[in-house]
Structures are given as structure tokens and as C-alpha cells.
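MODEL INPUT / OUTPUT PAIR
PAIR INDEX: 1
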Amino acid sequence: MAKRKLTIGILAHVDAGKTTLCEGLLYAAGAIRKPGRVDHGDAHLDTHALEKKRGITIFSKQARFETERIAVDLLDSPGHVDFSTEAERILSVLDYAILVISGSEGVQAHTETLWKLLQSYDVPTFIFINKMDLPAADRERLMAALHGRIGEGCVDFSVQGSKEFLESIALIEESLLDELMETGGISNGSIAAAVRSGQLIPCFFGAALRMEGVDELIHGLEDYTQDWEYPPEFGARVFKISRDSQGNRLTHIKLTGGSLTVRDEVSYASRDRFMAEKVTKLRRYSGANFEQLDSASAGEVCAVAGLSATYPGQGLGFESDAASPILEPVFNYRISLPEGCDARIVLPRLKQLEEEDPALHIVWNEQLQEIHAQLMGEIQIEVLKSMIKERFDMDVQIGSGRIMYRETILAPVEGIGHFEPLRHYAEVHLLMEPLPQGSGLIIGSAVDQNELDINWQRLILTHLYEKTHLGVLTGSPITDMKITLVAGLASIKHTEGGDFRQATYRAVRQGLMRAESVLLEPYYSFDIELPLNQIGRAINDIRLMGGTFSSQTDDGEMAHISGSAPVSSMRDYSRILAAYTKGRGKLSCCVSHYARCKDESKIIEELGYDPEADIENTPDSVFCSHGAGVTIKWNRVEEFMHIDTELGLNPGSRGSSAPKPSDRLRSIDDRELENIMLREFGPIKRPEYGSRAGRANEVREEKPEICIPKKPELPDYLIVDGYNIIFAWEGLRALADSDMPAARKKLMDILANYFGYRKNEIVLVFDGYRVKGNAGERFNYHGVRVAYTRENETADAYIERLIAEIGRNYAVRVASSDGMIQLSSLRSGVLRMTASELEREVEGVDETLRKLMLELNSSRVRVKLDIPSQIDIEE
């Protein structure tokens, strides 16, 4: 009979003996010859130098053992609260979990957090109470604590077969009671089904260091687990990214369907594009050792080489991505680099660490010109510094952490976003409502698909999901809010996907600007153990911190207090507790929830966030007037909006002039769009092209004119993405295939000729991102400003920065067919043109110049045109 394949994770509060239990399981099953010890630094799974030095698990590890009936992929996870996000990442691939509890310390605050995570991920759980050889371990007290803080489903399996054991199980579920009454016993299959459903939680007692209770736990895994069924189609879940000693990127997955073989092609969507890559290696790890595999089948855990853009939580094949992590860091830290280090070069390297631990959220703060990371606590800071030194040979400094706040609203509000530069159109209306504490963000649509196309609705909802939307008090992420799409408007011909992105983002921000927002801060759930005679001091400290306590107990010598308090007040309390208890006091805490900030006004003033100055998260809208985009401030958008939802939440609504409710949600064609423009901004005065001074009254035969756009009142800038244009224009592309420098020179000549007629400012940007040692270059070519970006600087980044600098003071157009540059242009409210549109405009200029030269030749007049090539036309 084939062995049952199981993926089992081991989780615990720090110092509960989790790694020691892993060593015991591997030794008892014959997977290792000798069990290692954490204090000796020879544990089979704690292989990293940092783990050996600190005596704690920092990175999740895989090991494998087999018995006669089961083949187990064992995943060991960190126990320290600072690395709890690492522990959470393995939960999505587990069949079962073993929750380890210290018999001397009992159920801790972090133990409860882990239990809630296991419930959230619906993972059937076994409990192993370790260190029962210590004097403080009391079985009855521990079972009472388990019943009170974990659940009534906890049953002591160390007395299997006894009458009390069977009766305890029978009380879990009615069918088990019926089976006991009818047969006088309960089968292993029925018990296994109750375990898998989460109703029954088997509890085993032992001392892993002495190998006591380990065999009983293994027999429990054999008897009370079930086979999992997997479909024949390929599916897998990514739970970890790592790099081996040679720097090879490894994607750790659990196969949830089909099989995977070396050289198989895996198609998947990365965070920004669709990928199709071949598997180059398959490995099965056990600690630091691994074996090469030719193939892996459903139910197995393996590491895959060859996939370059995967991320933890990602679904491959038929699997969808996992939900967003529940645990998140609550501190933001500034990373100071050594003198002489270029932050823009270091940032991509640090991003490798973020791949392996997405909770780091390593970002470049453009405003402060700093690198920031999000961390859970002091231990993780030291580990991060050590990893940067080991991996990149850099000694960085990490500043004091800033609390990660959240924001929410107190009353419903409607947010409106309109985005309508020339040839673009979208309008979005969102109903934003407050939700109870801990609800997070709930996003949905109340729009009938017959009124607004379902594809547009999905796109709007995607844009709501894809971005971390920031509040307007401190620029902190929003939470505990329901956002519902209630209205939308599109143009049949002019609306593109990026238009709804801009309208959606602006709608969220406009609604937040109009709403009454409040600041939330993170709270710790804590357990304090201290001498009984000092309980009064602790209770007084908790009250001064703005915290509360829910329970307090004592055993005659030591007191136990449980409760919650703001992270900002309690973050350093462990040192204070140790000082006044002379080392006898213990504090265990973990982030539990967000609640109203106690010092809201003070925090807002200290952070000094200006929502209207945050151009990346603007609340303003863009409307079209006289053929150009015009920015309308957020507090006047209601005066210009094209639809009215009649929700009664907009005091500036236009009342009777608004469209009827039945007309709210629809797509509009060009004629309707023109009517809207006429109603809102008056008739558009269109320039007449082609007339020349001194010949205005001359009667001429009407011929089609090549329309060269009239220069706007503001200075006109044209920013050109050089390589994109070269590879988009057929003639230049053919030349580039054989001689790229010649193609660049040809494009500069074309634009110089265009500049000579138009007299606008032209910036031509070439990407030097991959040129080693390139310091960048700027020069003037016959009036055209040419820029080569430096190494590790993309043309996208240079153009986006240039737009931010000149977009408000000049009429800017960006010529590129690159999607990212186009979206950047849209976000900044400047005009964009595709490569083909620029080519047609250049051809129009050439045609106009040819006509002028023909006319001048026919009149036998010598004219010297003001163009860079200084062409002389003579008789």
C-alpha cells in the first residue's frame, strides 16, 4: 500500500522546544543518525550561522522522514514573534500542523496568535506539550488553559483507549457519540475525520529532549491523519523564495495537482507581466542537504530552479494566489548606507531580500531620498543587518523605528474621480463606508453589468485591490472600510484601461479628503508574569500606557496578567519589567489589532503630512477644456462631474441639471462627449491651419491640409523615448538591425528638422541602464536636447522624473509606445502620443516643408529656411 503523503508544519512560541521536537521526530523515524541540539549549535534544521549564534530559528526549513505508513515533508518555522510573518507563509501549503507549547510556561500570547492563524488557514492541528519533565509543568493546569484559550476540542491523547478518553471525544460531535453508544468504541477513521474537520485537537505530552512522547506523536500522525486527493492537472503553491550558496534563485513549492518534471515549461503571471519559463532543476531539501529529483508529484514539497519572478503566496497552474498575509510589520525603519554607496544601485540588491521576505517592504522614499524597510522588532533588525553584511558586504545602520499607523473614516462618503486629458476619458464614483474594527478593506460593486460593461467594472475593482491606498491624515494605509463602485462612465472610443486606473485612484483620495478620518495605532496583546508582590506596579503601568487587562491569576508566588496596550507605549516595556523585577518578570506580546490612536493630534502634527502635496496620490481630477487637460481641485470636482449618483453625500451636486438615474452608468460616444464639453466649458475654438501671412485674402483651391498642432500658450515640450521610437518606426528599425549608432543619429536628424519648423523644446532620451560604468551624458544636437541615462537608471525613471519637474509649468507631450511610460504620463496628467502618432506628425511637417519649397521655387525667390541643415533654395 502506498504511503500517505503529508506536509506538516511545526509552530511554537519561542523557546517552547520546537526545533528539539523536529530533531526528535527525524531521529525516531530514522532520518538522521543523531538528534542535534540548539544549545550545541548542531541542530539538523538550524543551519544558518545566525541561527546557530542566536539559538533560535530564523528561516523556515524543510526536512523529510518516512515511517511504514506515512511520508512526511516537515516544515520547521521560526518561533520568535519578530519572524512570525515567516511562519505564516508556510501555512497555505500545510496538510496538518503541530503546535508546540512549553509545559512550564503554558499558553502564551504568541501561542494564541499562532492558533488564530491556523484557524484562519483552516489547518487541522495536533498539539504537543513539551518540557513536561520540568517541575513547573502541571498537566491538569495545562489542559484547563488549553480548554479556556484554545478550545473545548482539545483532548488528552496520552490516555488513549480509556473510558474518559472515549467520552471526551464523543462530546465533540454528535455522530461520534452515536458511534460510541452503538459500538462501545470510536474508530480511528472517525477520529481522523474529526481532526481533519478541526473539531478535535489531539494533545500529546512529552519531553522532546529526552525523546519522551515523540513515538506516541508519530503513531498519532499515522492513526489520525487522512489522505488528501489531488487533481491530475498541474497546480502548485509557492511558499518561499531563497538562494543557494551559489546564488541560484530557488522557488519552494508544494504541488497540489499533477506532476512537475525537469525541463517542463511553467507559465505564470508575475507581478507585472506574463512569464513562461523552463524548470532547470528540482530539489528535495532536508536541512542544508538536498537530493536532485527528475520529477515531483502532487502532495510533495520541492525547490524549483529556473523561475525568475515568482513570489510567496503565488499560485501556479490551476491554483489562485493566496490571500494577503494576516500578520504585518508595525514598524518602519530608515536604512542608512555606508558613505559612497549609491542608494539606487543598492536598492535592487536589497530587493532580493524582499523577494525572500515580502513583509520587509523595502522601498525608496523619493521625497526623503531614503531607503525604508518594515520590520517586526529589534531581533529582526540585527538579523537584517547581518544578512546585508553577509550577502552584499555592506555595513548599514538602521534608525529607530516609526510606528506604522492606519487610517479609517467615521461616516459614509462618496468619492469621485474624473480623468480626461485629450483622447482619454473615465469617471468613477465610489461609496466609502466605515466597518467595525479588524474588518480590513472590503471591495465590491453595486452596478448592473447592463449599465456599465462588466469588463470596466472588473478593471475598476482590480485597481482598488492592486494599490495600497493612503489616508490623508498621515499618509498611512487605510483599513476597516467598505468601498463600493456605485457609478462609472466611459467613452466608447477614447477610454483605455489606464484611464480607469487614474479615475479610481483619484476617487478614493477625493472621498478621503471629504470624509472625517481618524488615525489608528497598533495594539499588543500581552502576557506578563511577575512576582505577586509587584502586581500593583504592573497594573498601574498598564493603565498609564492606555492599556487594559482582561484577566489576572496567581499561584501564590507568581502573578499572570493578560490584556492589550498600544505598541507605542509597550514596545520598550520588557526592559522596564526586567529592571524592577530584577529579571524575574517575563513579557510576551504580539500585535493583535488596530484601534483609535490616543494622541492623534500630536502624531498628525509630528508627521506633517500634506495630502495635496502628494502628487503620487492626488485627490484632484483632470477634465478636458478646449482640447487640453485641466486639473480641477478635489473640493470642486462635484461642480464639474458628468454624472450624479443622487446618494445625498455630495453637497456640491448639481441637482436638477444632473442626468437621470437611468443615465448614470453607461458608455458615451464622441458626439455625447462633445456635448458634455460644450455644456461644461463652452464652445471650443479650433485653430485654422495652413494660412500664411500676406496671403490670407488670396482665393485658393481648397485642398486637404496637413494639420500641424498650434503651439500652446505655455512653452511646449516634447519628450521622446529614443529606443522605443527607433524600434517602432520601420525605417529606423531596419537601420538599427545593422548599425544602431546610425539609427540614433538618423532619429536625431529627423527631430532636429522637426524642431526647426516647430520651434518647440525636444528632449530625446536614450536608455543606458545596462551599460556598465556609464555615468550618463547630456548634449545639444542642433536644438534637440539629448540625454543618455546612467547605469541602472531606466529611461522610464528619467522621463517620469522630468515630467514631475516640468509638467506643471509647461505643455508636455511624451512620445512612446511603452506601456509603463504611457501610464506614468497619464498619472501625471500630461499628454501622451504613440510612436505612430509622432511619425505621422513628423511626416506632416516634412510634407508642409516640401510644399513650401515648391511654392518658393515656383516664384523663383531665394529663401533661407531656419532649419538646422540650412538648406538654400535658389533659382
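PAIR INDEX: 2
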Amino acid sequence: MKMPLGWAKEFAHFECTPQEFADRMTMSGSKVECWSSEADEISNVVVGKILEIEKHPDSDHLVVCQVEVGKDAPEQIVTGASNLKVGDLVPAALHKSTLPGGVKITKGKLRGVPSNGMLCSLGELGLSIHDFPNAIENGIMVLDEEWAPGTPIVEALGLDDVTVEFEITPNRPDCLAVRGLGREAAATFGVPFEDHLPQVKPGHGDVNELLTVSVENTDLCYRYCGAVVENVRVAPSPRWMRQRLRQCGVRPINNLVDITNYVMLEYGQPMHCFDYQYVNGKHIHVRNAHEGESIVTLDGTERPLSPEMLVIADDKAPVAVAGVMGGEYSGTYDNTTTVVFESAMFNGPSVRTTAKKIGLRTESSGRFEKGLDPNTCKRALERALELVQLLDAGDVVNGIIDMYPVKRESRRITLRPATINTLLGTDLTRDEMVKILLPLGFEMDGDEVICPTDRWDMERDCDIAEEVARYVGYNKLPSTVMRGIAQARPTARQDFDELMTRTLAGYGLWECETFSFYSRKCFDMINLAENDPLRNVVEISNPLGEDTSIMRTTALPSLLDVVARNYSARAADCAVYELATEYIPSPIANEVADNDFNNYPALCEKLAAEGKTPSDLLPTEKQSMILAAYGPQWNYLSMKGVVEKLLATAGLTGWEVRRTSAPTWHPGRAAELWVGDEKIGTLGELHPVAAANYGIKARVLAATLDMDAVFRLRRTEVLFQPLPRHPATTRDLALVAASDVPAAEMVKCIEKGADKILESVSLFDVYTGDKVGEGKKSLAYNLVFRAGDRTLTDQEVEAAIQKILANLAQIGVSLRS
């Protein structure tokens, strides 16, 4: 929405710079996008008076002019125009002047004769014949008003006003009008709002004798006002009106059309002007279009209509598409003598739907879409008639036809200062709030706020609070915790999830977020067994495509897609994770036939008889942490180390690893994680076939963790352990075992034999080769012994070592000789 500051000052007398205006209006809720002035592109161009005109000595089409420009001596300017005479006032661009479009003018010579500037045409000043109808389009512009030579041309032509452009939100259609923004400016600057009440002088005749109106669909037309003007005198509008229209981006046409556009900008109410002679039967019908009807709109395009569209019609055919555009014969012409002014309020969604279907969006439809105030219709029409009389554009017929079946009443909201102060964190009094509301058009009736009918966005206490807040100043509101409202805090699970993701990020993994749906092909990609329960999925009834047809039961394929994209992009390494949601189908959902969902009440009764509810049919949403990586630093042990640290951070203890035979994983290089009898995850190297299915030739390490189980099994209490007061004793054991003996089993034997004096055990070397024999491996462990209440003796440590060796012997493990 563009608004000239000069126009706004008719409603509010404020004085400030454009920058201050923009800042204060923005802070009070009317966001200013930018401001500009037509004078910004014009400099050193003044009013010049032609004193002499002589022929150029060396040209048949050039003349040499002596131009008075307000200096001690006239300036000599050479021009090729032929429409000048002595005494004319013209725009003179002097030496080192600028014109619109970045054109720079300097002095020089034309055919050997010095020229100290240029005389300007309309186009060179960025204007057109519509802006100054009395000017010559293809010659030098001659001013038709008296101005002193040397006066800046921007002042003489009215180009020095500043135009401000606002971003109007959909809930404030009242600000799609200069009058509405003027009210906001008055409240912002604390000056009176000077509203203008249209005054229509008595005319002649009676409008009801010339025109009748019937509204046949009151659901789509809330109000329709009409008036008649006879003996119209079509002429150019006065310069002040043309200037304001141009500044708002509207091209001036003639006085009648310009009046409707001017009122639309001033009041926000779209209007239309019909040629009375083309209204058949002198009867206007506001009705739905008939099947098969069409209309040729003002732009000359024939547009088919459908029955849900609202039209303005006469006794024979539609003459306008309601709220969008008039028909071919609904305008004004050279032979027009009588016109009908229309001001109406149509249903916004209907106008939007109609405009979209016929492929025509206009300034009018854009305003109706946002929802205007039907109470403005008559006042806007009266303003149009007042302008008709002011511009002597015709003779107004007495009376206005006003079809208003259901009047829009003002909403009433109880003013609750305590509630508003609670919402804003302020301590304003009732009187202070009322003082803010009254300049905005609100009225008070006891403790009730009477809202203006053009503020349909006002519904509750919070809306009143917003009005108060924006005029107190958002930058002045204290920073306080909202009172009377529960304070939002993360749940224990949210804190836990945040800790897990931060921990993995700290280990150098990048977080991903993938889609929750994919294709059944993904199960084959990861070598999932045909009878695996993960293949039982929730199918999407209306998928975007086959690749997004099911909800995932494991997020591993989703993350492997990310790894594959990084590998194909030649990334040297990649380590990613996702806290993913997986969807496990309800076991009873498959027992319900598709037809049962068509009769929902019967389905509910059936489930209730079985002790179930409809929510039991929904899939279980399971949270899993998926890790995947490749690169030179990644192997089974490094992935296991990350998982160990993650589970330690989670507070999970007592977990163990077990072999896995799942075809997704590399045989012998993967393990399952268990806590007692509950599986909590899997980690290891992806099967080479599965990696190849994704086009990855490197070793891919991955892990899946059931975060719901980890969260449930974690230790919630952190136990304090003091620093050791007694020295530790260390021993190294080099053990030989069969290749298929898990290292975890060996660690369990060590921990069992050492009992409570073993502080830690860590693997520091693994060897396979001829020195230990075929099918054997050597593992070297560092054992740290310590007692909390004494210094251990060598005998105690040696006794523990012997117990450890005895336990290891039971699984075929011995000391390496």
C-alpha cells in the first residue's frame, strides 16, 4: 500500500522526517517497507522562461533559446523543439543536472553553438500525457501555471512529496486506505485524527425513479449501494488528484474513473462506474451467473462464467463480475451522459475463487479478498458524489439506493486490565489503556470496548492487549516471565534426547533429518530377511509415489541414503546420525478390514466389545538413534567406542554384546547389544552386499539403538565416587584364545575373577599370526587393581590373577607363553 505523506497529513498534522515517520509507524505496528520521492532522481532542473528564440546558424531544425533561470544572466540552450514561443515556462535542465533513469546533462556545443543545458519533455521527466493532459507529448513541456524562473521543477510539478510504501498484513484491511493509515499516524504521533465527513449538496430528481436494484444472493453480497449522476462532463482530473493517483501507482484517465480510484485509495472501498445507457431495463440484479453465461471484461477478453460466481447483471446479461472487473460496456465513453456509481461489499472467499477461476486478479479483487467493512460502502459513495460536485463532473441525482439486509454490528469485548497486564508483563492502569484505544477508533461503554466494524480481527482480550502493546512500544515492554501461565520446561525425555545428540555431535558426527517414509525396496537394499517383522509396515493410502509409499520401520535405509550421496560426491569420509522416528504397525490393525473404516461408529462399537479403542489401531512411534560412517578412521572398534561413550553418557550400565546373524551386517564384524533379556541395539560393519546396493565401495560402519529402551533402562541417579586415597596396582595379561571366542566373554571372566578390587580392564593389543597358531588370536589386557580402604598387597593381586586365569580356562583361554 503506497501513501503520499502530503495526503496523510490531511488526516493527521504531524511534522517529521521520512526516516522518523517510517521508524515510528513500524514500531506502532504499521510496517514501512520503503519510501521514495520522484524528486530523488531529478536535480538542478528549474523553471525556465523563454526570453528569445533564434534560428540556429548551422541547422534547419534547431533553435537557440535565451532562458531566464533565476540567475543574474540568461542561459543559452539549444533545442530542436518547435512548440515553443517567447514567454513560455519550461523545465530547464542546467549544467550538471540529473534526470530519471540516471541521465546526466552537461553543457556542450550543438553544431558549434554553446548550449548550457537542455529543455525537457514529459518523458524526460518520467511523466506521461496522463499526468499532464494539457502538455504536448512529443515536444518540450510548457507549464500552464505561473512560476518564478529558477523555481525547482520538482516543486512546480508537485514531484517533491514523499511516498511511503507499507506492508499491510491480511488482518488489517482497514489499513488498505489512506484514511486508515492516517488514523494510525494520528495515534502514533499523538495528534488529533481529522476525519472528513462527505457532504453531498442537494441535486435534482430521485434516484429510485431511474434505477432499481435487487440482491438475489445476500450470502455473497452483504451490501449494495448505487447512485446516479446525469449530464456528466468527462474531462481530465485536477492536478492534485492526478498527482496523488500517480504517487500511489494508479494511472490517471479522466475525472469519472479517477474519482472511483481516488475513493478506493482514500477509503479502501473499490467502486465502479457504469454507463447508464447500457443498463438494460434500468434494473441491476446482483445474482449468481447462469449456466453457460460468459462476459467480455473491460480488457476485451471473453471469460466463461459458472453458477457459483456472483455477477452484476441487468435484465438481459451480466455487466460485471462482482468484485473483480466490469464488463465491456460497463465503462464510460465519449458519448456517456449518465452514469451509475456502485459501491458494494462482496464475500471475500467468493471473490478470490471467482478471480482465480477466470484468471483475472485485480486491485479490486485483492481488497475484497481480505474482507472489507460493509459500513464503509455508503460513506465511500457519498465521498464519490461529493468529488463529482467538487470537480463539476456531472449533476448528482438525489438519493442513494442502499440494499443492506443484515447490518454488521460492532463487537464488544470486556476490558480486563489485569488480564492484559498479565499477558504483557506491564502495570498499566485502566485509564492508560483507554487513552491508547480511543484514538484508534474504539469506544467505551462502561467496561466494554466497542470495536470499529472495520476491525474484524478484534475478538478477544489478547487482541486488545496487542493494540495496547504496539502503542506502548514493543521496545518498551519489560522483559518478564508471563504471569499466571505455566512455565514451559523441557521434559526429562527432551533433555535426554538433547544430551544424546550433543554427545554425538561432540564426537564429530553430523546430525541429519530424513523423511519418515520410503519404499519396500529399501528392505532389499539392506538385505533384510524375508520373514523379518520389520517388513510388516504401515502403508500410505495416497502416496506421492512408489518411493514414498510406506512408513519406515527402521531408519537405517534413510541414513544410508545420506551416506551414499556423500560417497558419490567423493567425500573422503562421512559420519552422520539421526534421532529418528520409526513406525511399528499395531498388531490388531491388520485384523480390521478396509470396509470397517467406512462405518466408523460400528468399528468403535466392535473395538469396545473387545476392550479396545480406535487409538489402539494407530502405529507405535518408536525413537531410534541411527549412526553410519565410513572413512580411514572408522572401523568396528571406533564405532563401538562411540556407542560405549554414548551409553555411558546416558547412564546405562550392565549391557553386553552378543553375536548377530542378521544378513544386514557383516558376519563376525557386528554384534547385538543387550541389557539382560532385552535387546537395545546393533552395531558393526554393514554387509558388503548391502553397501554395494547403495553404490558404496568403502567399509560402512553403522549402529542402531532403541532410545526408548535406553531411556527406560538408564540410571537416573548419579553416585558420587571420591578420588582414590590408595595407590593402584597394574598387571598386563597376554591371553591366547580361539578366534571365535568373543572378547566380551573374556572381559566377563576377568571381572568375575577379580571381584571388587578390579578398577578397570582395557584391551591394548590384538595379534593373529604364526606365533599363536592357526585359528588362534592373542589379546593383551591391562588390569588396574585398587581397594578403597587399603593398599593391596602383591599376594592379594596374585590371588585375583589366579582366579581370573581359572575362569578364562573354562572358555579355553590361556596365558600366552
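PAIR 2 NOTE: The chain has 21 helices and 40 strands.
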